[in-house]
Structure formats: C-alpha cells, structure tokens
Amino acid sequence: LGRNDEAETWFEGALTLEPRLTAASQWLGELQYGEGRLKEAIATFESALKLAPNGDALERRLAEWRKESQLQERFYESRGAHFVVLFEGPADEALSRRVVERLEQVYWRIGGILTAYPTKPTTVVLYTTEQFRDIRRSPEWAAASYDGRIRVPIKGALADLDRLDRVLAHEF
Fold first, then answer.
1. Under a CB-based contact definition with an 8 Å cutoff, are residues 54 and 42 in contact?
2. 8 Å CB contact between 154 and 128
3. Model-level pTM?
4. Which range (2-6, 77-81, 117-121, 160-164) has the least confidence?
5. With left for phi above 0 and alpha for psi between -120 and 50, is residue 148 left, alpha or beta?
6. Residue range 16-30, pLDDT digits in tens
7. At 78, phi and psi to the nearest 5?
8. Which residues, in sequence order, are bridge partners of residue 150?
9. Residues near 45 by beta carbon (within 8 Å), at least 6 away in sequence
10. Three-state SS across 86-113?
11. How far apart are CA 118 and CA 151, in angstroms?
C-alpha cells in the first residue's frame, strides 16, 4: 500500500519479539533493498542467517546483493531534486547529468498527468551492458529494468538520446 515506513516498524517489532521469524527478516530485507538501502538489506539477511542457518533462499539472495554492493562501492553519485544516479566513473559524468536532467523533467510531466509525485528520491543505476546482464540477469532485449531502482545499461546511450529519454520515462 506504499506505507513502507509503517511496514518496516512492524517487521522490526516482530523481529524484536521473535528474532527467528525468517519471513519478517526476508520482507524487511526486501523492503530495505527496494528503497535502495542495500547495506541495511544485507545486514538484515546476515542476521537472519545466523538464526536460520539452513536458509538457502536467504543465502542466494544475499550472494546477489553482496555482488551488487561490491560493484556499487566504486560508483560515483550525481544528485537531482528527486533522483540519485549512480555511475561507474568520471567518463560517465556527462551522461549521469543528462539522466538527472531528463528524469527531473519526466518527474514533473508524468506527476502532473497522474497528479501523484513520489516523495522519496528514486535511485538510478547506470551499468555497462555486461554489468546489467550479470546483476539483473536480464534478457538481451531488455533496455532497462525497475525493481525499486531504475537500472539502465548505458552502452551507446549518448549516441541515441531520444531512445535513452524514452527508456528513462518508461522506467519512471
């Protein structure tokens, strides 16, 4: 229902009462991940695994998140009023500024049409094509993905700015 703060409070309360409640840990970790709080999500799953050592699903998800965290530790950040764009290096800085600029325009255009505006900043991650396929395990035809964050492979993005704008608008 979009009341993530309230849900988080309930999950934390449940875990205070019963730390072995793996389902609460899973939901809390996924909520944290969906809000772009990757380190917190990892910590939540690590705590759950200490109490539920046979959590194969937790282990697999945690491995994915650790891999993503290692990659993003070396990323730079560009901020707008409503977006945070993560990118790999100075060579992508011009592109990241373009992404922030276009998304800010899309924010107001689509928000005006829907009369609804997200209150929290949206994280956008710019990947190489290889990183995108590896982290997202997306098919070749996928132009981007959204899982609480907008994820975009950027190969050739500056060569076709109209396509980039369409992809960003679609994912937002």
1. no
2. yes
3. 0.76
4. 160-164
5. left
6. 999 999 999 999 999
7. -125, 135
8. 124, 146
9. 25, 26, 29, 58, 61, 62, 65
10. EECCHHHHHHHHHHHHHHHHHHHHHHHH
11. 17
